[in-house]
Design a protein that fits this description.
The protein is mainly beta. It contains no helices and 11 strands. It has strands at about 5, 10-15, 20-25, 35-40, 45-50, 60, 70-75, 80-85, 90-100, 105-110, 110-115. Strands 2, 4, 5, 6, 9, 10 and 11 form a 7-stranded mixed beta sheet that branches. The termini are far apart.
Length: about 120
Amino acid sequence: QVQLVESGGGLVQAGGSLRLSCAASGRTVSRYRLGWFRQAPGKERELVATIDWSGSSTYYANSVKGRFTISTDNAKNTVYLQMNSLKPEDTAVYYCVAKSVGGSYDGWGQGTQVTVSS
């Protein structure tokens, strides 16, 4: 199992930036690909970005490409989501997730609120 603790959400004006952090722990953490989901009120959950621990393989949703960057700090077992040029439609609760090799999401963070005002 893997445990995930997020931080870094908050309120920002449109065009601003925020960085989310996700600290991962557990004996098998290196076996997982980490990423971020988000869910806005009344909307379906959306996979935003994922990364492997080498940093060589990343995925981004079309809605965030060119604005968000996912990265890792292996020494700290931490994954970051740098969010630039934020838009009101980025407002959501962001969840850090751990994806197994088999494709299941075996770990979820508690969620952190990101609110972008217009």
